[in-house]
């Protein structure tokens, strides 16, 4: 089946506007930085020093890069920016979850989240400004997709979140489950993750990175063929095409059968168990019949299921499911031998669900 999608009230993926390069941020413009350094008689290794200071040493200003000559640091501060992003807001929830609202060079806003639990420090990052998938319960896609993020804008989310950790702590995991459809911006994402995975970078192991998708079969296979050990998480949200077409409008051009076949191919190619995500919407997809249908869909597959009780979103009428319904749903899956976990809700008091903080900020006007 063709994967060319007709997106609701937004742009087709292939026609999304390209990201515009951020002005004079050193990681975004390394070729220009090399030229600038050469014009001042500085060796090329200075660019490597600057990169190492930002990525490995947490430098957030040129003044902090004390292995560079003072005069060079002063010139850099006049002509360049350390980051292509600006922190517009950074609320912290009572459970310790931190959310960053980042303003890009063109004024657009994106979100990323730092979740701390036991010895895990997990970054949840975005890949697009907005989202073109149109999932009815998600705040990220209510205004459609504006553009893809550059690889630097993706990487900087990890750097920004890491920099909030105390000295000696590091990011241990990354989930690409923020704003946007990650596989619709796969080249930039893979480039950013490659940098983050280096020993002299963030040292994020491939097996500690999960990439989520609403289900783009050709892109799932492309990810498998990249030869990486990333986890794949497929967002189902319904056990049959009829209901999924209502919840995930793009499904009517793809279909569950094609998505599951691609996910099976991912497992065969990589040997990595596929995770399936299922947001439970009260009274819509959380009943006993839905659970039994989901059992039939996943039975025999090397898969794990995450059940996610809906996190209320401003302006949407969908309801959080009753806790007893969540328990019964999960037990139906477990009794059938399906590995199932109910995901905890974190950061509700800071609008940590994807896209909420951005919507509130845009509705309120410019963020100081």
Give a structural overview:
The structure is a single chain. By secondary structure, the chain is α/β, with parallel strands linked by helices. The chain has 2 domains: 30-79, DNA polymerase, domain 1; 84-364, Aldolase class I (TIM Barrel, Alpha-Beta Barrel). It contains 11 helices and 12 strands. A 10-stranded mixed β-sheet has the order 1-2-3-4-7-8-9-10-11-12, with helices on both faces. A two-stranded antiparallel sheet has the order 5-6. Strand 7 (173-176), helix 5 and strand 8 form a beta-alpha-beta unit. Helix 4 (151-162) runs parallel beside helix 5 (186-196) and helix 9 packs parallel to helix 10 (323-335). The longest helix is centred in the C-terminal third of the chain and has 15 residues, at 256-270. The protein is elongated. The model is unreliable at 1-15 (pLDDT under 50).
